[in-house]
Amino acid sequence: MTTPRSDALVFFGATGDLAYKQIFPALQALIRRGHLDAPIIGVASSPWSLDQLKARAKDSLEKHGGLDPAAFGKLESQLRYVAGDYGEAATFATLRKMLGAAQRPLHYLAVPPSQFTAVAEGLAKSGCAKDARVVVEKPFGRDLASAQELNRILGRFFPEPAVFRIDHFLGKEPVQNLIYFRFANPSVEAVWNERHVESVQITMAESFGVAGRGKFYESAGAIRDVVQNHMLEVIACLAMECPAGNDHEARRDERGRLLGAIRTLGPADVVRGQFRGYPSEPGVAPDSRVETFAALRFHIDNERWNGVPFHVRVGKRLPVTATEALVRFKHPPRPVLDETALSSDAYYRFRLSSEVAMSIGLMVKKPGERMVGEGIELLAHHQTSDAMAPYERLLGDAMQGDASLFAREDAVEASWRVVDPVLGNATPLYDYEPNTWGPPEVERRLTPPGGWHDPQPKEAEA
Fold this sequence. Notes:
Order of helices and strands: EHEHHEHEHEHEHHEHHEEEEEEEHHEH
Number of helices: 13
Shape: globular
CATH superfamily of the largest domain: Dihydrodipicolinate Reductase, domain 2
């Protein structure tokens, strides 16, 4: 179904860190591709001039992705600025005037959730919300109850089809490849079920610490920061059923249905850890009990995945920075083979980094008289210098009204329902040494069948 394209882009929080690191580079990229030819209006409380905002944009591009003189020149010509308090009607009256003839604006709320109500109400009262779309940044709440309240607030001012909840992980090319790889290859889909799959594991490792964001991390922790959103979205991409159609709601239907089938976590499914030295980070409480590491075991209660464990491991100050998903297959019971291994070296491994990288693990016979084997790995890379960055892809989709890669209300609430009982200090916290794979308790309690696969610093050259 074709939807009308937004005819203006408004981004609140224009002087903030997210705009500096992500939004300005995405805007320049969209303009360079010819995908953004509309007024761009930044809104923030900082009493800046338009020239100051343009200087900020230029500095952003010089440090994050590179300045394209032609595209930046056009960005400057399209850029406007409204300075004002989000709680003041005058701010939104100025915005409405600056929108001019635009009738279908896209409002991007790159602001904390605590400010959603003021911005949404101001947009509605000024007439700026009429026929508009709104993009909101994560976190979508801190737990199930607060997520439901945020959804209720947004629903007062915007219909659900006009709300785009952005999770940049869904905009990553390798994450999209998970879906394409599954449904484009019949030989893969035929074995993508509990009869053949022994376990699934996903690791999101970061070798750095909180990188000066201690105050933020104290309010979040690993489970809120990346498990409830990024990791559960990856599980949905790996495990959902094939959408019935090509429209964006069909894909969101299946992601939401899969998330709804994930069993709510209990204490036995979680090991939390904190790297030694975290409490001395700036902005962190000396007696902090916030996790910088989490290992979790999920179960999906449906016919396809009944009995297959999905293990997730996330953390900071781990040995490498890498995100990988590994689907391990069961060892086939074949009498002709002279071995009875409990776990096979047959797997698919996906590196979810800047390039699309996929490995296939296979068993081959060792030379000799006996029918015994060894594992080998076939590695394939696919990288392009012109791939869309996640924010470019997602902002472009939102302008077009394509919600395929955005979280829907039901999916957000389903994700919080899964993790809600283990948030905060519901489970013990264990120390771990930096540059290790988390606390020893993980190996004792939450090791996947066949063991954890530890990502390597860099893939071998294809």
